Amino acid sequence: MTQQGSWRRAVRAGALAAALALVGASAFAGNQAEEALAPSVVTVLANAISDRPAPADYALRPEVQRWLATMGPKLARRVADPAERRDLLATVHYESVRAGLDPLLVMGVIHHESGFRKYAVSVADARGYMQVMPFWTRLIGNGTHNLFHLRTNLRYGCVILRHYLDREGGDLFRALGRYNGSLGRAEYPTAVLAAMRRYDAQPAGAPASLGAAVPR
Questions:
Q1: ∠ CA 178-182-186, rounded to 5°
Q2: How far out from the chain centre does Cα 34 lie?
């Protein structure tokens, strides 16, 4: 192949890569839709996000200690401060289990949604670690709820994802699509599951444990 031919192929490859990057950016910039909720659903969700913090000794429980020991090194590059990292991981574990979700799934959502940036804000105004849309505080909470607060953000995010999972009869693909505002498209669910692989060697088994919420 001539040098000119190689150059042309490189240019075409670069253009294709740029086009794919633009497609990916638009596909992943979801906009979770505000929908009318039945009064009974509002009551259930409002109760679910009610302020019940983790027990004071939660991070000392053996299963949580194992979680912290496993996840801590994997998150160190993104959350450098050890105390902040421990608090984040303990809260992820507590809020996930409280909502009946696999903590690895929530890690995948946070990784993809905000990159573990507490004050992340999307172009659609989604906020915080799990990129919660502000309209949720009006629908099921109140105006005093700060979506940049760690536990508040994860509480809302986990309850909303659980709501979508129940609504879709346990179909994780569709539930993630609703969470992202891209129902029926593969990009977001695929990206979240790929993010899970950063934290677990076998994430494919995770959805099987998501069928029912734990008792609250």
A1: 105
A2: 18
CA distance 174 to 170: 9
Question: What single letter denotes the amino acid at residue 98?
Answer: R
CATH of 31-209, one of 2.60.120, 1.10.287, 1.10.530, 3.30.9: 1.10.530
Beta bridge partners of 121: 127
Note whether 45 and 140 are within 8 A (CB). Answer: yes
32 and 180 Cβ atoms separated by less than 8 Å: yes
Q: How far apart are CA 169 and CA 100, in angstroms?
A: 14
**Residue from 75, 77, 88 nearest 154 by CA:** 88
Count CB-CB contacts under 10 A for residue 38.
8
127: β partners: 121, 132
| pTM: predicted TM-score of the whole model, two decimal places | 0.79
Q: Are 179 and 32 in contact (CB under 8 A)?
A: yes
Enter the tokens of residue 73: 């090194």
pLDDT, one tens digit per residue, over 71-120 is 999 999 999 999 999 999 999 999 999 999 999 999 999 999 999 999 99
Helix (H, G, I), strand (E, B) or coil at 132: strand
User: Which stretches of the chain are assigned E, i.e. beta strand?
Assistant: none
